[in-house]
Amino acid sequence: MPAPVTGRIAASLLAAALAACGCAPARTAAPHVAADPADAPLLIARAPALFVSDGPEHDGNIAQAAAAHAHALRSGARRARKTDARHAPLIFGAPEGRAFLTAPAAARALAIGAPPPSCPARAAARAASAGASGDDAQAGMAALAACRAQLRRAGREDGCGCALIAVGDALTAPPDAYAYAPGAGARVLGPAWGLALTLASREEPAAGGARRLTFHPAPGERLRVLIRPDDTAEAELRGPDGPTRLTGSRRALGLERGRFAEVLTLRDPRGRPLVVAAGLAPPALETVAAATLRRALRR
């Protein structure tokens, strides 16, 4: 994997990128518009770079350097190959990746926490206006800011940065940055309902930037979970006596193969806890779920 581009060297790389393409990062011709956003052409750098901002004071330089790198790929000053989102699983499968795909190609960016295992953030953003010069950089700054806000909510600002992995129609990062597990492991513990299940979980976008988790095989299909951007959560558990609504909160731990490693503590109207851990690899999946349930039962 190439060494990350950090804020301390982004300014010099920006100058080098501009020199390589022989021009300022002005807007090129509008990209092809596909009926399905997943079919729209994307550019993958043959010499990838990881643009990491390790603090808000570096966001501007990192965004400018990533924008210049993307422009160099479009112009041919840097070598790239064409692909589509199906060959970048995080872009194709994650809710934030889909949000990136459906935004105008001239004004979008995607960032993730860095390093991912301990930095739980995925953020897509658009520039304030589409079509003007500098939109790539504006979108990059917005994505970095949104990524940093997620780290702040998770209490992971110290020791974490944010990496820009896609800008406009360019995927600049190494291939492993786009790994994604559509069916990540989950552990559901609810003693009041006799639940101690190890399942697979899938995520899908919901209204207002929320995510929905679904579980399979049966009886996991009885449970559906909604996670909001502010880390509040609610769930519906269907049973013989009808559905039970639960509410609670979510704690993000990191990113594993592009999926959030996360644990939710939910309670029904009687205060009985239901714990859902998802995205973790075993044995951490079982350990985290059990420890969270013990804490919930003591309250």
Question: Over the alpha carbons, how many angstroms does the gyration radius reach?
Answer: 20 Å
User: How far is the N terminus from the C terminus?
Assistant: 45 Å
Tell me the overall shape: elongated
H-E string: HEEHEHHEEHEEEEEEEEEEH
Spatial strand order of the main sheet = 8-9-10-11-12-13-14-15
Number of domains: 2
Give the helix tally: 6
Largest sheet: 8 strands, antiparallel, barrel
Would you tell me the structural class of the helices and strands? alpha+beta
List segments where confidence is low: pLDDT < 50 over at least 5 consecutive residues.
Answer: 11-33
Strand content: 25-35%
Mean pLDDT: 88
Topology (elements, then pairings):
Blueprint: H1 7-21, E1 42-45, E2 51-53, H2 59-75, E3 80-83, H3 89-93, H4 95-102, E4 108-114, E5 122-126, H5 135-153, E6 161-167, E7 170-171, E8 184-190, E9 195-205, E10 211-216, E11 223-227, E12 232-239, E13 242-256, E14 259-267, E15 273-278, H6 284-298
Parallel strand pairs: 1-7
Antiparallel strand pairs: 1-3, 2-6, 4-5, 4-6, 6-7, 8-9, 8-15, 9-10, 10-11, 11-12, 12-13, 13-14, 14-15
Structure overview:
About 8% of the residues have low confidence. Helices cover 26% and strands 33% of the residues. It starts with 6 loop residues before the first helix and ends with a helix. Helix 1 runs parallel beside helix 2 and helix 2 crosses helix 5. By secondary structure, the chain is α+β, with helices and mostly antiparallel strands. The chain folds into two domains: 172 residues, no CATH class; 115 residues. The strands form two sheets. It has an eight-stranded antiparallel barrel with strand order 8-9-10-11-12-13-14-15. Strands 1, 2, 3, 4, 5, 6 and 7 form a seven-stranded mixed beta sheet that branches. It contains six helices and 15 strands. 48% of the residues are buried.
